[in-house]
Every structure is written in C-alpha cells, then in structure tokens.
Write a structure and sequence with these properties.
Structural class: alpha/beta
Strand order of the largest sheet: 1-2-5-3-4
Number of helices: 7
Radius of gyration: 15 Å
Oligomer: single chain
Shape: globular
Helix content: 40-55%
Length: 164
C-alpha cells in the first residue's frame, strides 16, 4: 500500500512522467503529464496531441507548443476517425525544424491515447498492428485500450495497408 501511495505522489509531482515510446520523439501520457509545463520543457516537447474530449489544452498560450485536440470520447465512439489527423500531426511535427517532439495524451494515458499512439506507430514506423501494440504496451505499462477502440484498429489497419 505504501508503495502505491508513493507512486501516486511521484506521478502527481511529475517525478514520474509520461513514457517515451519512440526515441526522444514520441511520448505517451496522461492529462497530468500534459499539465506539467516544467516536464514538457525538460523533455523539449514541441507538440501536444490531446486525444481526449474531457481534458483541456493546458498551455495553448505558450508560443512554442503546438496543439491538436481530437475530442475523442471515452467509453464509446471509438477513435478511428481520429487516426488520419493524429498521423498527419505527428508526421508534420517530426518533419519540422529540429524534429518535433510529441506528447500524446488523454485523461489517463491508457485507452484513447494508447490506441491513437498504436495507429501512429503503425503508420509512421511501418509496424504491423501486433508490433505496434507490443511496442506501446512494453513502453507504457498502463496502456489498455478498451473494446470499442480495439474493435476499430483492425479495419483501420486493413484500410492503411490498402492505401499503401
């Protein structure tokens, strides 16, 4: 119990922050991570991909942060409609001057943002669905996309392959 409380305090303070998914270019986290401006700065984040409809864009007024909010609802609706915009946002960030660094987040960093991160890795890294799933879940232990998001990944994967 004490270990769990210590972990919760470390997460709240920012001592434990988002998880690095792709080589100092892509992080996956929760709303509290996106709120932590000192950690955004420490990790040189340039772009914030807010997948959630229930978490604000905390630092939109900061001139060196670029935001995209996908407004994906939790518990229903799925995230498939958000994949193309997410992929384009991350692709553009990485192609920018100095190679952008992106934080992808939702409220908890386990469902909506994890699902979108899996799609981004598939598209931009050329990974299969299973490879991308394994990468994201290995690097972000809290990743646990819900059934509605899992259900749309396979059709999107087939669409993505057909478009290639």
């Amino acid at each position: 119990m004490e270990r769990a409380l210590a972990r919760r305090r470390a997460m709240a303070s920012g001592e434990i922050w988002a998880d690095e998914i792709v080589d100092a270019k892509l992080w996956l986290g929760a709303g509290r991570d996106a709120e932590n401006l000192p950690q955004l700065r420490a990790h040189a984040i340039t772009h914030v991909l807010n997948v959630a409809d229930d978490v604000p864009n905390f630092h939109e007024a900061e001139p060196d942060l670029t935001y995209l909010c996908l407004n994906v609802r939790d518990f229903g609706g799925g995230s498939r409609h958000a994949y193309p915009s997410a992929v384009e946002f991350v692709r553009d960030a990485w192609a920018g001057t100095g190679g952008g660094r992106v934080l992808v987040h939702c409220a908890n960093g386990s469902n909506r943002s994890a699902t979108v991160t899996i799609a981004v890795c598939m598209e931009l890294l050329g990974l299969t669905l299973s490879e991308s799933w394994a990468l994201v879940c290995e690097r972000r232990k809290a990743a646990a996309p819900l059934a509605d998001n899992r259900a749309v990944r396979m059709p999107w994967h087939a669409f993505s392959l057909a478009a290639a």
